[in-house]
Amino acid sequence: MPSCGFLASSYASFLQRLEQGRAFPKVGAGHARDDEKESDRPVTPGPSPPSSNREAAAFGPDPKEIMMGGLPAFTEADFVLSKEKRAEITAGLTPVQAKMVEHWMDLHEVINRGDWDGMDAFFNTDTMTYDNPNRPDLGTYHVWKTSPQGLLKTFPPSVYRTLKAWGRGDDEICVLCHHHGKHTGGPYMGIQPTGNDLNVVWFSWLKFRNGKIDHIYSISDVYSMLIDVGVIEAPQPVDPYK
């Protein structure tokens, strides 16, 4: 079984490739020619950094810094996805798949403003199930709903955004997402508020039924989260085999 250090370093490398558009081949794209070098292939540039250090300092790291996991510097404005950004995220999906991703991004806007009653409209609340190997206790919608509520109290402003999206058929999507907050609201796993930034990158697989979310399976970078909060101490990056 791979060690936590190996998983974290591999995860960071994967996200850096993902941001450059090299983690997955594009749908319909052919393989490289035998005489074509990796460096010769076009690379999709990542998003531009904030226009000033002051802008970045208001909500995230210095634009010259790259956060763990290859996440570029960001500001609070990045958590309100523009029409152009949404189109970039849904590019290549079928209309049905794009609609499901839009549904998910709309849900984030509702959660980001703390509209707990409003989020119910996005789910089949009586049948929705949730799976996460780190939180087996959050199996039903009404129990799972308490998680974002608790995160807002502990890590305000506790905002979410979608970074990438993929689709399969007419009822499944997979999304790569980012959760940001600051540990200022209350204790977490016995650690009193430190003011440290919290930045969790996670994947969710979503299953829809009748136009609403019916199942979520999520896997997140909990290892980095526990380091950020101060629950554990671990050097990063590190070669686990030395």
Give a quick rundown of the structure:
This protein is an alpha+beta fold.
Question: What do these coordinates show?
Answer:
This protein is of the alpha+beta class and 242 residues long. The chain has a single domain, classed as Nuclear Transport Factor 2, Chain: A, CATH 3.10.450.50. It contains seven helices and five strands, in the order H-H-H-H-E-H-H-E-E-E-E-H. It is globular, with a radius of gyration of 19 Å.
CATH secondary-structure class: Alpha Beta
CATH architecture: Roll
Q: Tell the overall outline.
A: globular
Radius of gyration: 19 Å
**Overall structural domain count:** 1
List keywords for this structure.
single chain, 242 residues, alpha+beta, five-stranded mixed β-sheet, 28% helix, 19% strand, disordered N terminus
Topology:
Elements: H1 4-19, H2 53-57, H3 83-90, H4 95-112, E1 129-131, H5 141-144, H6 146-154, E2 159-168, E3 172-182, E4 197-209, E5 212-220, H7 222-229
Parallel strand pairs: 1-5
Antiparallel strand pairs: 2-3, 3-4, 4-5
